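REQUEST ID: PR-0412
SUBMITTED BY: lab tech R.K.
PRIORITY: routine
TASK: structure prediction, single protein chain
INPUT:
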Amino acid sequence: MNGSGARVLVVGAGIIGRALAYYLSKAGANVVLIDAGAGISCASRASLGVLTHYSGGFSGYGLFIKDSLAMHESLSYELLEATGMDVGWSRLGGIDLAFDEDDEEKIRSLYEEGCGYGIALERLDSEQICKLDVSVSRNVRSGLFFFDDQRVDPMKLGRALLKAAIEAGTVVHWGERLLEVEHCAFHDISIKTSRARRHADILILASGAWTRGLAHRGKLDNNDELIKFSKSLEEVCINTVESGLMTKDLAVLIDKSTKYLTTNQFLEAIDSNLKKKLN
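STATUS: complete
OUTPUT:
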């Protein structure tokens, strides 16, 4: 390791884990990145690479989205210079469409909110939208164009981040699964993995929370409640999407006129349906 700073153990080598490893190694930390698999994660592979406009208000989550979106262009040039790899970044813009009065009310609200946050956007009428995208249904009534919506190639981004992280000093161990956090105190963390016991000042879990992983954890611990919860959560997620409630990345795969929810609205739907399921 090249760094002389904190010992950081990052668990999970998806795009988030690789980005953390890259930035932390650049900052001088001694980073070890472990992953149970042998390559980029299922979640990263499944991503469409759409970097959509900011939502979420001034919450920590909302500001995180806003700041992350603003960094992608410079990151793409930085990775190209550091690794010679093009991550496929482009600013394509994005359109939210309205097909009825409820949609138009949502558009009005988004426009006011976006102006308040300083987002580059423009209200469009049906004629303007059809000129921008001839595949949009003629039933469209209005829309919002977001100038700064972007896209990257997730696989290319993942490969570039990993290469840059390794060149910056990150040590990577594939096929190593986190089994247990044995001790956790300030700058004194000990974990047990499928290969070794590791020690760190800082532990970052970037491996996601897949429901099947929770179920397996429940099986290992003989925790029937955890197994039941993970199965219920998986069923609720599937049933919610099948009922027609989904985010934009899924909706556009059906049809460009398919209605969709914002991330926060989708999480609220999952939360409501999960409470009904568990009660």
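NOTES: The longest strand covers residues 178-185.
REVIEWED BY: pending
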